[in-house]
UniProtKB/TrEMBL annotation:
Pfam families: PPR. It comes from the Eukaryota. This is Uncharacterized protein. InterPro entries: PPR_rpt, TPR-like_helical_dom_sf. Belongs to the PPR family. P subfamily.
């Protein structure tokens, strides 16, 4: 799966900034989280925040699942707290 993530990231990096939509950022985040590429996932998550792409639960869920599988339960709690602070519905 790692080679597919590398290919997706290479494609993403070649895109013009105007072509990088919220959906594309979400897909790339989904590719990084299952592989537990924490640094890349966190960086992408911050970039999505800067672009105001964190308006739904989906990217938060991706991060939560990554941290859970890495057994970093303190980080899971931090993500849930951020969801609450932003008043994002968990449904």
């Amino acid at each position: 799966m790692e080679k597919y993530t590398a290919a997706a990231e290479k494609y993403f990096n070649k895109l013009d900034e105007n072509a990088k939509s919220q959906a594309i950022y979400r897909k790339l985040l989904k590719w990084h989280c299952p592989e537990e590429k924490k640094d890349k996932a966190k960086s992408l998550f911050k970039k999505m925040d800067h672009l105001n792409f964190l308006d739904s639960k989906t990217p938060f869920n991706d991060m939560t699942h990554m941290y859970y599988h890495m057994k970093q339960l303190d980080k899971v709690k931090e993500v849930y707290n951020e969801i609450e602070q932003r008043n994002i519905s968990r449904e």
